[in-house]
Design goal:
Keywords: Signal. By secondary structure, this protein is of the alpha/beta class. Helices cover 40% and strands 10% of the residues. The longest helix is centred in the first third of the chain and has 24 residues. Bound molecules: zinc ion.
Length: 354
């Protein structure tokens, strides 16, 4: 099988499904169908963390993302992160931790009929396409070639650090150091792009972001921050500067709107209107083609009032529309922009790639 082929087939299938929806939308407006006018493709939902580390049942009976809330929120696609905590072990995480968490994700997908199998080649109405990412890939400094087999299994987005600095990159919330990507980290990022997956900058430092820009450019790769907001609106190091948002836009990438209250407002609390403010700023700076959804649901977040769980997307859509955002733009933010980056392929990776 071609490298990562199944995951890309899933993206194509989702894209076709959303495209059909768009046509329906353009043709007649509200049409009386039960199906909502948009779907959500969420770039970051931490249910694997809850199941693997926090004892939640794989059938997802509770939390922000359950079969009921995901359906009510019109989810059509979900990225399930292989999140490897920096403190997974006293001596630091190992690559085998990523294998174990991936096995947990396979169990979650198997146990919930709402999810389509990883890499399913067809989108099915009422079910959710599933995609993989790695959050906190520092352990791969042990052997960066090991990332290949995860990309082969469908991982599309990879962040080289989480909360703390790794041997690949300094983190947004890590100790101050005088480097961004390490030399090994640069080689790692180039390898990820060459193999057809993307680097996720959500948790890396500004210096690491800056180091990545020329590497992404050399590979024609979009820069993606799966779950980060605008720092101009909420002054948190996990958020993106306007300059970074513009670089994301220029690269063809996306920033995924994060619902964690401190990332929305810079304060302990937030409301649905605050999330809309973030979205509007991000659209203004990066462009409407470069904002997506990365809710961070079930990632231990403080949810905004009015966006309590995955079922809240109709409320967000309604508020954005009320503020004057075009339906087509809501559709872009909710799903189309995410699908574009999930479906990215390196320009030169032809059939002959070894
Ligand atoms: Zn995160």
């Amino acid at each position: 099988m071609r490298r990562g082929g199944r995951a890309l087939a899933a993206v194509a299938a989702m894209g076709a499904a959303v495209g059909t929806m768009c046509v329906g939308f353009a043709a007649g407006g509200a049409g009386g169908e039960a199906e909502p006018a948009y779907q959500v493709v969420d770039l970051h939902v931490d249910v694997p963390y809850q199941v693997h580390f926090k004892g939640r049942a794989a059938k997802l009976p509770e939390g922000h993302a359950t079969a009921r809330t995901l359906k009510a929120g019109a989810y059509g696609g979900i990225v399930l992160p292989i999140y490897i905590p920096d403190k997974a072990r006293k001596t630091g995480p190992l690559i085998e931790d990523a294998d174990a968490i991936l096995a947990t994700i396979e169990g979650i997908v198997r146990d919930n009929p709402v999810f389509l199998p990883l890499g399913a080649a067809e989108a099915v109405p009422g079910r959710i396409s599933t995609f993989l990412s790695i959050e906190g890939a520092g352990a791969f400094a042990d052997d960066i070639t090991q990332i290949d087999r995860f990309i082969d299994r469908g991982v599309r987005l990879i962040s080289p650090a989480h909360a703390s600095n790794t041997r690949l990159a300094s983190a947004a919330t890590g100790k101050r150091v005088d480097h961004g990507l390490t030399e090994l980290g640069k080689a790692f990022c180039a390898r990820v792009y060459a193999r057809g997956a993307l680097i996720d900058v959500s948790h890396v430092s500004d210096a690491a972001f800056a180091d990545l820009v020329p590497i992404a450019e050399a590979h024609g790769a979009p820069i993606v921050a799966t779950h980060s907001n605008a720092r101009a609106v909420a002054g948190h190091p996990r958020n993106l500067t306007d300059e970074e948002l513009r670089a994301i836009g220029k690269s063809g990438g996306v920033a995924g709107l994060n619902f964690h209250a401190p990332f929305v407002t810079g304060q302990a609390e937030a409301t649905l209107d605050d999330v809309v403010k973030q979205a509007e700023h991000m659209v203004r700076v990066a462009g409407v083609d470069h904002v997506a959804i990365g809710s961070d649901f079930d990632g231990g977040i403080v949810v905004p009032v009015g966006l309590e769980d995955a079922s809240s997307f109709p409320a967000l859509a309604a508020r954005l529309r009320k503020r004057g955002m075009a339906q087509g733009d809501v559709l872009k933010i909710f799903s189309l922009n995410a699908l574009r980056v999930l479906g990215w392929r390196p320009a030169k990776a032809g059939a002959a790639a070894p």
